[in-house]
């Protein structure tokens, strides 16, 4: 379906009734195995996706499927514990629906995280990557269809989707924490099958450092409605064809668990400095 501005308003109004006068400033979309940050929110109010008008359910493993409102490092946040994916059967408009709702609630910044396959052969599984840019070649845009001018222009600029000032904040935070932070390009593939070795070679030739099945649609939507964006990738495994072994969902979740402390310290420090 194509959403109207009224759909977004109805979702936002329902959430306002649940959270009262609280106004979030930073939206956080946490990917596979990384939703634990939502459990650290202080004075938390949780709203399941299924309760919100027009919201879709998150069915991917490791995704709780709820919005958590409260404070983290003194910042008023809205944390998405789990996201929607195109491979679950949702349109790109449905995948990125929550971003616009959170914008209406007052969020002007988006922190997005994911777990992805590492394409850069100089790096290793378990590394953290600051996303500097993205590639999304496949299928339609989340902005396809009638433009909603209440959010942004028909043809939005995408030259700085990942905000340079926030990237500098992340570099500084990582340096002070002694956390090695790679920097690179995230390439979107629709999934749910993992990429083939040939697709991974193509991604590398195209300039990608990581490949994954999320993030790009939400970031396009955030850019359209004027939000600042900071993105991190957990390189949970080497992408297909680099090592002679099959890829598995458990590998992704295990890697996320192993990097839990390092990842949370970095994101929380970035929040503190915003």
Automatic annotation (TrEMBL):
**Positions that bind a purine D-ribonucleoside:** 195, 237
Q: One biological-process term from Gene Ontology?
A: nucleoside metabolic process
Q: Which UniProt keywords apply?
A: Glycosyltransferase, Transferase
Indicate whether Glycosyltransferase appears among the record's keywords.
Answer: yes
Please give the InterPro entries that the UniProt record associates with this protein. Nucleoside_phosphorylase_d, Nucleoside_phosphorylase_sf, Pur_Nuc_Pase_Ino/Guo-sp, Purine_phosphorylase
Q: Which organism is it from?
A: Candidatus Flavonifractor intestinipullorum
Q: Please state the span of the N-terminal signal peptide per the UniProt entry.
A: none
Source species, domain of life: Bacteria
Which molecular function terms from Gene Ontology are attached?
Answer: purine-nucleoside phosphorylase activity
Sites binding phosphate sit at: 32, 63, 83-85, 115, 214
Cite the Pfam families for this sequence. PNP_UDP_1 (PF01048)
Which family, according to UniProt? Belongs to the PNP/MTAP phosphorylase family.
The UniProt catalytic activity note for this protein reads:
a purine 2'-deoxy-D-ribonucleoside + phosphate = a purine nucleobase + 2-deoxy-alpha-D-ribose 1-phosphate
Query: Can you name this protein?
Result: Purine nucleoside phosphorylase
What CDD domains does the annotation carry?
A: PNP-EcPNPII_like
What is known about what this protein does? The purine nucleoside phosphorylases catalyze the phosphorolytic breakdown of the N-glycosidic bond in the beta-(deoxy)ribonucleoside molecules, with the formation of the corresponding free purine bases and pentose-1-phosphate. Cleaves guanosine, inosine, 2'-deoxyguanosine and 2'-deoxyinosine.
Q: In which pathway does it act?
A: Purine metabolism; purine nucleoside salvage
Q: Nucleoside phosphorylase domain location, by residue?
A: 26-272
Gene Ontology CC: one annotated term = cytoplasm
> Which Enzyme Commission number(s) are on file for it?
2.4.2.1
Which major enzyme category is it? transferase
């Amino acid at each position: 379906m194509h959403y109207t501005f009224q759909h977004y308003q109805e979702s936002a109004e329902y959430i306002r009734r649940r959270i009262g006068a609280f106004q979030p400033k930073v939206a956080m979309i946490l990917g596979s195995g990384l939703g634990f940050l939502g459990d650290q929110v202080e004075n938390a109010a949780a709203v399941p996706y299924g309760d919100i008008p027009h919201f879709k359910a998150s069915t991917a493993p490791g995704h709780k499927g709820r919005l958590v409102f409260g404070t983290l490092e003194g910042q008023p946040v809205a944390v998405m514990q789990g996201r929607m994916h195109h491979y679950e059967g949702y349109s790109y408009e449905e995948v990125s629906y929550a971003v616009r709702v959170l914008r209406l609630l007052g969020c002007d910044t988006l922190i997005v995280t994911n777990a992805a396959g590492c394409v850069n052969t100089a790096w290793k599984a378990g590394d953290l990557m600051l996303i500097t840019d993205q590639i999304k070649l496949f299928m339609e845009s989340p902005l396809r269809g009638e433009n909603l001018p209440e959010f942004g222009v028909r043809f939005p600029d995408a030259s700085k989707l990942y905000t340079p000032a926030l990237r500098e904040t992340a570099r500084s935070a990582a340096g002070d924490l002694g956390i090695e932070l790679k920097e690179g390009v995230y390439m979107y593939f629709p999934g749910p099958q993992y990429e083939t070795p040939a697709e991974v070679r193509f991604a590398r030739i195209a300039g990608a450092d990581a490949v994954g099945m999320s993030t790009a649609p939400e970031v396009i939507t955030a850019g359209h409605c004027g939000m600042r964006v900071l993105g991190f990738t957990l390189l949970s495994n080497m992408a297909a064809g680099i090592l002679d072994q099959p890829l598995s969902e458990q590998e992704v979740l295990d890697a996320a668990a192993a990097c839990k402390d390092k990842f949370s310290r970095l994101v929380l420090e970035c929040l503190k400095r915003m």
